[in-house]
Amino acid sequence: MMKNVLIIGSGIAGLSCAVRCAGHGLRVMLISPYPSERAQSVMAAGGINAVTKGHEEGDSIESHIEDTLKGGAMLGGRNAVEGMCRQAEDIIRYLESIGTVFTVDENGKPRTRAFGGQSHKRTHFCGASTGKQIISALVMESRRYEAMGLITRKLGMDFYSGLIRDGVCYGALLFNEGTKTLEPVYADAVILATGGQNSLFGKTTGSILCDGYAAGRLFMQGAVLKNLEFIQYHPTTLETSQKRILISEAVRGEGGRLFYPEGGNRIYFMEDKYGPKGNLMTRDVISREIYATGREVFLDISFLDKKLIDSRLPEVRDLCSKYRSIDITREPIPVSPSVHFFMGGLAVHMNHETNIKGLYAIGECASMYHGANRLGGNSLLAAIYSGNVAADDIAKNECRGGVQDFANYIAHEKKELEKLYDTKSAFPVMYMRDMLAETMKNNLGIVRTEKNLKAGIGDVDEYIGTSTHLHYDASVSAYTNYSLLGIMTLARAVLTCAEHRKESRGAHYRSDFKESADELSHATLISYDDGSFTVNLDKGNAYEN
Ligand SMILES: Cc1cc2nc3c(=O)[nH]c(=O)nc-3n(C[C@H](O)[C@H](O)[C@H](O)COP(=O)(O)OP(=O)(O)OC[C@H]3O[C@@H](n4cnc5c(N)ncnc54)[C@H](O)[C@@H]3O)c2cc1C
Q1: Which residues line ligand 1 (CB under 6 A)?
Q2: What CATH number belongs to 405-537?
Q3: Under 8 Å between Cβ of 230 and 241
Q4: pLDDT at 327 (0 to 100)
Q5: pTM for this prediction
């Protein structure tokens, strides 16, 4: 019997997984609100890591593994990281075989760069648009399978909830934006590929389409979440009215220098403290150092030959020019840290299945490879690798079968949705979302304290308390309205994990517990039961650490 797989989210993780599933002869439904070309994955400019043939002298797959584990403060899953780094070259070859064109030098050898925390140059890139190029190639590949009837893509569909009974997931309830109704989709396996949690923080470097709602809702339905306190602040972003624009690590990879002005001089604070490789320290370290200067900091690449800037950093050049009229070939860029990536997410086993049978999580919404801090270029790799692992696992498993009747549950949720449309109160949904983002930014920054975290928890508890009498906001989508409670619950879980980890490690820095504690060198797991949150360290290694 042919197995059916439902994939939620069509960024690089969801799309590549759909293609892999179809390659195994599985029948896939791939749903998302917008086409893949609008997923956050297309913003990835810097590149994807792999140690490939002709690699930099001294580099090896072992170095890639060690850099990844060390960068993640030893919280990444060792066996999983090994699997990912060993498959990285095959992934690059596969991407080339479907039409992704990586940048090469005049001899046809891959041009690579080093991101922070990497001992060697191993980041492969496609000019300044790696994510876009990979998505384009995968879209083409997906169309082949769509023509064969193996992949069905549905747009205008949002995740609403899982169809879960007795710890088994049988499908998902989706919100159809066109008909404004809930539709059940049953499948042998459900794969969540919904990306990070940007909306918890309002303006970040990432896409507002990644709001964490699906992870939050599944958490409320029994899924365990992991390592939520580890949130990556990218050290070099440029403020604009709409969002924080990422000034790619590629700038520092090409020799860019961080400094602040003092008394007519430039103080190269990273080089002064960490030596010549100071500008290429990991993102957590640089973000904290920028924060510690308490000043306006700049990133300078203007000394590089203009032709090199034009060929290697055209996107950064154009973004700075377009949004802030800065000519990076002549002047430095004012930069500051901003929320950029979420190391935490759904807890998954080595096969990427969650604690709920039949429910998988891949890409940025899952927590596995990056531990307490992600290295640049490892996220695209993890997105594709995790999708491969999940697809291969589903292909070899027995068909689950067993039809379940969810009619009562669906009728109940339809009523809940209608109630939301009818409710009148003083709290419009968008106002609550803005309040939540303020709370998260103020209390869960680069430097955290018990006092801040407890204040944040208090605020979010209050917001959750008001959520039963929220005023439906007709100026935003129905999804934006119904997703609020899941997002707020996720925010509460993130703050709770951060409060629970009384040490500093990777991206989680506590000024009241400045050192790492050996006994806390385990992943954080959090679960939810009817309004209460339970946090534990994964000492028994239930989720491969
Ligand atoms: C500016 C920027 C630059 C980056 N550069 C790099 C880089 O150079 N190298 C690197 O390795 N990483 C980079 N990253 C990180 C990387 O882009 C992401 O981690 C990765 O693309 C995540 O892929 P994904 O498929 O998991 O998620 P996404 O690409 O975010 O896709 C998520 C999908 O889920 C859908 N979705 C979300 N919520 C719902 C819902 N409720 N219902 C239905 N669908 C939903 C979305 O619409 C989308 O289709 C960068 C990130 C940013 C923000």
Answers
A1: 8-14, 32-34, 39-41, 43-48, 130-131, 158-159, 193-195, 205-207, 209-210, 213-214, 246, 340-341, 363-364, 376-380, 383
A2: 1.20.58.100
A3: no
A4: 97
A5: 0.95
